[in-house]
Write a structure and sequence with these properties.
heterodimer, A: 99 residues, alpha+beta, N-terminal domain of TfIIb, 5-stranded antiparallel β-sheet, 17% strand, B: 269 residues, alpha/beta, Rossmann fold, 11 helices, Trm112-like (chain A), Protein preY, mitochondrial (chain A), transferase (chain B), 2-methoxy-6-polyprenyl-1,4-benzoquinol methyltransferase activity (chain B), 2-methoxy-6-polyprenyl-1,4-benzoquinol methylase, mitochondrial (chain B)
Chain lengths: 99, 269
């Protein structure tokens, strides 16, 4: 119980992760029904890990960091740039696929 | 097993009521004061980092749902601007400043929080109020911000940093994303300075608050945890030193209500 006194973000993340895991299929489903991502935001955003510019992948509704090969979901038009929620892209040729 | 997630789920539900009960409404004054201290100038680019904690997000979530004045800080700042119909008259000065700045002066607020439902609710509320510009919503971790270097004039975080895993990292990131001349401001629980008052406050915290939590929210443990986490956070001087460590200068703090809370401020020079 003692450790619960320290309320830590990563613990919360770990516990809530199962509820909103980053799955490209979900993301694409949502993109059709929910708010579109405002691409003009891109100029104000960077990858939280590499701090490099991101690219919007419309098909998967993801923000892609080509430098690291990771993709971040967009949910209800809001980019989720939490590193733990990123998806590794297996290779550049598979960027568009969920794999 | 009582998980952290459950703790905050429980706290969130009756958060407004509990906040008022615990602080006798003072938390609202703190927040107003915080906003007036910041008093943004026209054209300000503000980052409101909620701290990436379950705690604050839950709070925001419930507060926004109920439409009551936000008790926690800076996200409030951003929320206030759009939600002009907020019923907290006492803070109208700060709110009006923000609204004006957002509406007419090309200011921009970026709300960054680690919790998605909180952002969804905030965004929907802002849209309902007709605010489509001047505010951006990004899900992110305050320890690893998704923004370029030197991209903001002001950074606010309120009742959020206490719950971050690595507080120094949060401060380093704040420093990175601020421009030269940019200001860091934090509202957080702190240490009551007067020893006599502190012992009274401790008694109140440990003996009254959990009981109140039990009575009002039917939840003893959550409130005991909150009380404990406040005690674990560095005191005024300790936190000021951490802020300086990240590179901030002209670091000052101001005690609110005998030090129950404090506003820390620093500049990137």
């Amino acid at each position: 119980m003692q450790r619960l006194f320290a309320l830590r973000a990563h613990q919360y993340r770990a516990m809530s992760k199962s509820q909103n895991q980053h799955n490209p299929e979900d993301a694409s489903d949502k993109s059709s029904s929910a708010v579109q991502f405002d691409e003009s935001m891109l100029q104000h955003l960077v990858c939280p890990l590499s701090k490099k510019n991101l690219r919007y992948d419309k098909q998967n509704n993801e923000l892609v960091c080509d430098a690291l090969g990771v993709a971040y979901p967009v949910i209800n038009g809001i980019p989720n740039l939490v590193p733990e929620d990123a998806r590794m892209l297996k290779s550049h040729s598979e960027k568009g696929d969920e794999s | 097993m009582y998980t952290v997630y459950e703790v905050f789920e429980n706290v969130a539900k009756k958060y407004d009521l509990m906040n008022d009960a615990m602080s006798i409404g003072v938390h609202r004054l703190w927040k107003d004061h915080f906003m007036q201290r910041l008093s943004p100038t026209p054209g300000t680019k503000l980052l409101d980092a909620a701290g990436g904690t379950a705690h604050k997000q839950s709070l925001h979530n419930s507060e926004r749902e109920t439409g009551t004045p936000v008790s926690t800080s800076s996200t409030d700042a951003t929320d206030e601007s759009p939600s002009s119909s907020s019923d907290d008259e006492s803070s109208s000065t700060g709110k009006n400043e923000w609204r004006k700045a957002l509406d007419e002066q090309g200011s921009h607020v970026t709300v960054c929080d680690i919790n998605q439902p909180m952002l969804d609710v905030g965004k929907q509320k802002a849209l309902r109020k007709g605010y489509k510009t001047g505010i951006s919503w990004v899900q992110g971790n305050a320890e690893s911000l998704p923004f370029p270097d030197a991209s903001f004039d002001a950074y606010t975080i309120a009742f959020g940093i206490r719950n971050c895993t690595n507080v120094q990292k949060v401060l380093d990131e704040a420093y990175r994303v601020l421009r030269r001349g940019g200001r860091f401001m934090c509202l957080e629980f702190s240490q009551v300075t007067n020893p006599v008052l502190r012992s009274l406050y401790d008694s109140y915290s440990f003996q009254v608050i959990p009981v109140m939590g039990q009575v009002i929210a039917n939840d003893w443990k959550s409130y005991q945890y909150l009380v404990e986490s406040i005690r674990q956070f560095p005191n005024q001087e300790g936190f000021a030193a951490m802020i300086r460590n990240s590179g901030f200068r002209m670091v000052t703090y101001e005690n609110l209500t005998f030090g129950v809370a404090a506003i820390h401020s620093g500049f990137k020079l």
